[in-house]
Amino acid sequence: MPIYLLLPLAAAIIYALGSIIIKRALKEGVTMDQSFHLTNLVLGVLFLPFFFFGRGAFDWSQAGKPLMIGAAFFFGHWLTFIAIRRGDVSFVTPLMGTKVVFVAIGVVLLTGHIPSVPLLIAAVLTTIGIFVMGLADLKGGSHLAYTVLVTLVSALVFGLFDVFLSWWAPDFGGLTLVALGMGVVPVFTMILWLFQGRPALMPDRKAAKWAWWGAGMIALQAITMGIGLTFFNDATGVNVVYASRGLWVIVLLVVFGRILGNSERHETGRGFLWRIGGTLILTIAIIIAVADRAAAIGN
Fold first, then answer.
1. Among the residues of the chain, which ranges form H helices?
2. What is the dihedral of CA 61, 221, 161, 25, to 10 degrees?
């Protein structure tokens, strides 16, 4: 297994734990806006040190690139929270995994680099597995189509973010690009906060620890993914392995669900079996992707 694929694997595990912790924070009374803004602020702070490790002086004529990356991340992040407001988290989160297909398409259209056939097969299997995981959560209602549309647009925007970051990093300077791009995110979040009428930004003391831990976990996995996308020209392979977060969510819910105050495993009933089936498909996709990357490096 290529060593660099350990980065998206670690990010997937951290994301899974972070999402469970954020769910606990929401249960304790943290609002979606508070969680969104707090996560963005933590992201900006944790990414800032990377700027000082970048190479050379910053070329201001290239300022549009980190601005576009930051805007894409912020917009995609915001759309995800809108989708979660309108739909079930257990449906929105698996559907977000379709990003891997958008990344594969984006790599071809924007860079001209065509992923290998096994990697494309892995991307398709990833999408099938993700839909199977969320199949039991499909419910009728007028808001369903809206939720699906917003979630797919969010996945598309995040896919563009990944492709842009992987594409521009070699010429721009990877650490500088990712630091500036993510440094723009807190600026956008404070502008939105002002337009919202400056609502309470910090949760109350009871829920604060869960909100901070959740934000920290999401920020840490973003850093891990950022490094993987910046230094290794394999956006599709990285995202296929990252899609294993669905698998790790199930594992963590089974092992630590009660400790973290999450009873989703018991509440979903038969739906949990669908998620296990989807996880098996995801695992096959990940094995194909890892084998393909290993073979490419060997050649």
1. 6-27, 32-47, 64-86, 89-96, 99-106, 117-134, 144-172, 174-195, 205-231, 235-242, 245-256, 264-267, 271-298
2. -110
Tokens of 6: 């350990």
DSSP state of 122: H
pLDDT digits (tens, 9 = 90+) for 125-174: 878 877 787 666 665 555 566 777 888 888 889 888 888 887 887 777 77
Packed helices 205-231 and 174-195: angle between N→C axes, nearest 10 degrees: 140
More confident residue, 57 or 285: 285
- Total-model pTM: 0.82
CA–CA distances in Å: residue 52 to residues 41, 175, 220, 227, 288: 19, 8, 18, 15, 38
- C-alpha distances (whole Å) from 95 to each of 87, 130, 148 are 11, 6, 8
Cα distance between residue 203 and residue 212, in whole Å: 9
Tokens of 85: 């407001």
Q: What is the DSSP string of 172-207?
A: H-HHHHHHHHHHHHHHHHHHHHHHTT----SPPHHH
Q: What is residue 47's three-state secondary structure? A: helix
Q: Whole-angstrom Cα distance, residue 274 to residue 145? A: 21
At position 234, the amino acid (one-letter code) is D
Amino acid present at 53 = F
Distance, in Å, from the CA atom of 299 to the CA atom of 295, rounded to the nearest integer, reads: 6
